[in-house]
Amino acid sequence: MKRVGKPVFFILSLLILLVSYIAFFGIYGLNGDIPITYIKGVKDIRWGIDIRGGVEATFSPADGVDATKEQLDSAKSIIEVRMVKNNITDYELYADYDNDRIIVRFPWKEDETEFDPEYAIKELSATASLTFREGHEYLNVEYDSEGQYVYKTPTGVTASNVLIEGKDISSASAMITQDQQTGKQKYVVQLNFNEEGTKKFAEATSRLKGQTISIWMDDVMISYPTVNDTITEGVATISGDFTSQEASSLASKINAGALPFKLQTDNFGSLSPTLGSSALYSMTIAGIIAMILVCTFMILMYRLPGFIACIALVGQVGISLAAISGFFPFIQSFTMTLPGVAGIILSIGMGVDANTITAERIKEELFLGKTIDGAIDRGTRASFSAIFDGNVTVIIVALILMGVFGPSNILSMLFGPSTTGVIYSFGYTLLVGVISNFLIGVAASRIMLKSISQFKFARNKWLYGGNKNENV
Predict the structure, then answer these.
(1) Of 16, 100, 126, 426, which sits with the fewest C-beta atoms within 10 Å of its C-beta?
(2) Nearby residues of 165 by Cβ (< 8 Å), 6 or more positions away
(3) Quick check: pTM over 0.90?
(4) Angle between helices 445-452 and 7-25 (to 10 degrees)
(5) How does pLDDT run across 99-128, given as a tens digit for each residue?
């Protein structure tokens, strides 16, 4: 067996427990009197309609516009983009073509305390108008939840001179290019204009070369690039010191603002939770009790491998929650429903199963007369194929559930849009749980087991399920 250094066990254990702790509780601070979220925790999770309830709103074209079916479909798809951009996956969205209406239901925001439906729908309606304006003059400055500046209310020439509207843009996407001066890769946002937008943008960039064109969502400035060249081909690039997340976010905002018409809110109201927070509380308590019982069983039955399995299970839960709350900068936060919680619990069961298979294989090797090192080596090898096959099967199922019942709604005509959010939530948490099981329950736990087996106190076969007082 390839030996693993003794300190590796303590390093991995502390790292798993530290990441799990931060994933649960997050890291927060203050910039003066302004609260700042450095790393999101469980309290930043947005709970679904089934747990906290939510909002129902009806939108229609403003200014008496008689929308076509294609325009309503376009507006509906853009509202869906806004939902995803705001990390809302538990939603219902319908288009009423006969009455020119779009009906949407979505859960409350994670930090909502007033439960005001009129305020809540601003997440969707406040970004109704995308404009490109001359200059970048603004009237007000506010702070967002992370303490960053938010420039609001165009003024002066910026308020009076609208160059491009959302309807003039066909698409926006984040891309990677190579900086010609440094040779390094950088993130940019590529804009594609329609025929009318191409003419308008060519005129604007010709007149404002070397000056600023700012991009606004209603009264909020989201970017203010400088015009370097006259652009006549209908394709433009916004560059800057973007991270991957920032470039993707800007592209999503631009796409979300390209409505074929301005929306007005006809009516709105609150939705009561179908199950309620008491169901979540009950499921959480049940999960904690189950975790304690499982860990007790694993330690009594498998001793040292069972103890390491318990550490791995804590890490698996921590990573699963981190992938939901927005802990990782490359994974957006996620709307959590009760089926989503069930997906985490099911994946924990698979993690237990993986560690049980490995521990049983090690016990078998010990009873066949193998040394501790030989039993761990052969036991982990022999168990891997069974664990891999089972987990890959579940990953395929989870991907199918996400593809069918995700934002694309591939089979909504058969199952109905009301099922999409909860089933997608289940598939997502199941997928994340299985992946974290591979990382922690399979890879990390085996490394920790090989590491701790190098200590003198751990050279007793009984600690691995073998005969008592037999040291090797």
Answers:
(1) 126
(2) 129, 130, 131, 132
(3) no
(4) 140
(5) 888 888 888 877 667 777 777 776 665 545
